[in-house]
Amino acid sequence: MYKLLCIALFCTTSVLAQKTDKALQDELYQLTKDYHGTIGIYVQDLKHNRIASINADSIFPTASIVKIPILTGIMQKIESGQLDYHQRITYTDSLFYNEGDDILSNFKPGSTIELSKVMMLMITISDNCASLWLQGLAGGGFRINQILDSLGFKDTRVNSRTPGREANRSQYGWGQSTPREMASFMQRIVQGNILSQASGEKMLRILSRQYWDEEALSQVPPGIFTAAKSGAVDASRTEVLYVNNAANPYIFSIFTKNNTDKSWEYNNEAWVITRKLSALLWKHFNPKSTWQGPAVSQ
């Protein structure tokens, strides 16, 4: 009860203290007004505690961003002593996932690997075999959702392989969240109050190692510390990003669904608008910066 009260007070205080950045809000509307699909954005100015948003509380598919909640479930098991970060675990036939080019799906049954490396594969290259393995080790979707509920998240949920959430899976896929909740999730990791300070710091380090860096991350100078996770399925592309630049740190999430453009090329409309948003925010929070990222479209 005390923990839930603290979470409620934290969330209420944060919301009451926040003000809307009206100039940035107008820029977001201009950026998104002609988008062919449904788009949601939430931006948090961590220096001035200001926000800007579009459809911030609408529920969207997470695609692979659901791996942040799965990571939280694993970290809770490690924190409680039920798992060890460096323990070796054994791959079996039942873990095979025959989609894409996942590294773990090419393992031979009986092979062992450190838990920490499976966590790295899930976050860094978004290996789905690793993710499903970790979801099971975390206690399954139901247990992860219990943790999310205890942390005060009402819309962020794991749907896949979670009894009672079949209808949600049909609508949203593996997981679901809102732009506001996922940006807040990242903020709490940054602040060290998602589980504990130590767990938050470890999660932040893991989230800073991203192979998929051609969308939002591409528009941030490579010398700036970032932590991120992205996701993509045919009609939905998502990303959440923390940018720890000295002048003005910020977090933003962008979610899309019902996308008309379902292509997988660089100029996919959702990916282009993600790069445009990231470039816009870098310039907004760093007006004196002369750095130019790669072209947002080709």
UniProtKB/TrEMBL annotation:
<protein>
    <recommendedName>
        <fullName>beta-lactamase</fullName>
        <ecNumber>3.5.2.6</ecNumber>
    </recommendedName>
</protein>
<dbReference type="GO" id="GO:0030655">
    <property type="term" value="P:beta-lactam antibiotic catabolic process"/>
</dbReference>
<dbReference type="Pfam" id="PF13354">
    <property type="entry name" value="Beta-lactamase2"/>
</dbReference>
<keyword id="KW-0378">Hydrolase</keyword>
<dbReference type="GO" id="GO:0046677">
    <property type="term" value="P:response to antibiotic"/>
</dbReference>
<dbReference type="GO" id="GO:0008800">
    <property type="term" value="F:beta-lactamase activity"/>
</dbReference>
<comment type="similarity">
    <text>Belongs to the class-A beta-lactamase family.</text>
</comment>
<dbReference type="InterPro" id="IPR045155">
    <property type="entry name" value="Beta-lactam_cat"/>
</dbReference>
<keyword id="KW-0732">Signal</keyword>
<feature type="domain" description="Beta-lactamase class A catalytic">
    <location>
        <begin position="40"/>
        <end position="256"/>
    </location>
</feature>
<dbReference type="InterPro" id="IPR000871">
    <property type="entry name" value="Beta-lactam_class-A"/>
</dbReference>
<feature type="signal peptide">
    <location>
        <begin position="1"/>
        <end position="17"/>
    </location>
</feature>
<dbReference type="InterPro" id="IPR012338">
    <property type="entry name" value="Beta-lactam/transpept-like"/>
</dbReference>
